[in-house]
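job 3f2a | input accepted
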Amino acid sequence: MTNSADIDIAPTRSVAGPPRLVRAAVSMPDMTTTVRQLDTDAAVGAVGWLEVESSAVCGTDVGLYRAGLDSPTVLGHHVVGTVVSLDETQSTAWRVRPGDRVALEEYLPCLRADCPACRIGDYRMCPHTDLFAGKQRVGLLSADDGAGLHGGNAEYMQLSANSLVYRLPADLDADLAAWTQPFANALDWTVDAGGAKEGSTVVVIGPGYHGIAAVAAARAVGAARIVVIGVPQSAGRLEIAESLGAVPVINNNHSLPELILRATGAEGADVLLDTVGLGGEAVAAAARVLRKRGRLVIGGLGSTPVCELDLKSLVRGANTIVGVRGRSPDAVARSIELLADGRSGLEIVPSVDVDLDQVDDMLGRMATGLGPVSPHVVIRPQLRRPTDQKRGTLS
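job 3f2a | predicted structure (395 res):
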């Protein structure tokens, strides 16, 4: 099996391997980040090297940072870059050569023949790479392990034999390329798990990174009505959702079912996607406004995920409740295709570009709820000066 998207790629260029010392933002257990020079010669298990173009900041990064990392770590798991060197065996297996532009998944699965998940290509469910078990993931391995260059918040990162690599078009806009993984998540959650299709009514709870991507996913399949609900503090992000074609709704501690019914003309939702982790009572109440055969998709853990459900209502409506995490390889391929074809609409979302020296400040702000309005925060390790930033601001 290959993890490369089946799309036409421009001819590759001749490139060299990484320098011996590269700059990396190393995040600490005490919620601080320092820029260090790490030695690529110390790498263990590297089959190749990636020059990092972008490392988009995900809510998982922020949550791990806030909770306290287990050890010094080069974070960053939504990674895009250019392959600068690669073992011939892996080049053949991945159908990727030095000079190719690629996106990575964060999973570092065991790939064992006796692993039920890996055997069928369901890498996100491999215990080895599970976020709550094995924790073998891009952007989560310790900086004390070998060269420490296991995440995207560095000028270069190592590729391992179990890396999941997808080729990208050489001319894909850098801001859109950084959406590859979150948009793939949204396609998996909204379309595959949620069943959104042409004519659907889709309601998204939370206009954050994945909430905005979910709007784009629903729009891509022709949803007739898209509603996004957020708290007053998220008004700026609701405006972004509106610019993508969604109906923005501010929740001032109102009844969630009432808000949904009002925004959908009393019809309810075909797909209700919770990206933030609602409280138990809110989830139970929201499930009651699903349309016949509607689906409640839970993508956020939240603080109180346990609730009592109205099972009679679920049965009468033939409704479905499904939890989601990560995405399938097919969703990544579709994400790349839609982004490359200009059908995602995500080009209108401002990109907030951050260099390595600004990672400490940005992660600290985001961990305390003071991040920028746009959820598309992208670390660009090759930036050297704040004046190099484009299209977004740090405010």
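job 3f2a | Confidence is low (pLDDT under 50) at residues 4-14, 385-395.
job 3f2a | closed
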